[in-house]
Specification:
This protein has 137 residues and is of the alpha+beta class. Helix content is 16%, strand content 31%. The chain is built from two helices and ten strands. The protein has a five-stranded mixed beta sheet. A three-stranded mixed beta sheet has the order 4-9-10, with no helix packed on it. It has a two-stranded antiparallel sheet with strand order 5-6.
Length: 137
């Protein structure tokens, strides 16, 4: 069982790196502490990316929670949300479905967490529902 946050982050980064390679993109890491985890180069532009890992198996609720906050070990800054001035894209690895999901600034800016549905709600609700299938990267 993976309990170490750093190890989970590395797994998420490797999943993103694999997906980027499949898409023909170059993934680079900053050499010093930065507000983003990586830069994606699609051959036309550079994209600042934050990579996250979401836990949970989605059972029995069919949902997982993604934490979009930046955590810090310092007392002054324990956690804060991201803005579109800092990152261009949030990539979230969801092990329950073994997929990397992509979120744009309008979907993550200023939010600390989101609930991601792994399957559509049985009651047909669409408003306010974030479906994993709509965000697969």
């Amino acid at each position: 069982m993976l309990a170490d946050t750093h190890k989970k982050g590395e797994i998420a980064f490797l999943k993103v790196a694999l997906r980027a390679a499949e898409k023909g993109m170059i993934l680079s890491r900053p050499t010093t502490e930065a507000r983003y985890d990586a830069i994606l180069d699609d051959g036309k532009k550079l994209i600042r990316v934050q990579v996250k890992y979401t836990g949970g198996d989605g059972k029995p609720s069919g949902m997982v929670r993604a934490d979009f906050r930046k955590k810090s070990n310092t007392v002054a800054v324990q956690s804060r949300t991201y803005t579109s001035d800092e990152i261009d894209m949030m990539l979230v690895y969801v092990p329950a479905i073994d997929q990397v999901l992509m979120f744009k600034p309008a979907e993550f800016a200023g939010k600390s967490t989101v609930v991601i549905r792994l399957q559509p709600p049985k009651n047909g609700q669409k408003i306010g529902v974030i479906l994993a299938a709509d965000h697969v990267w």
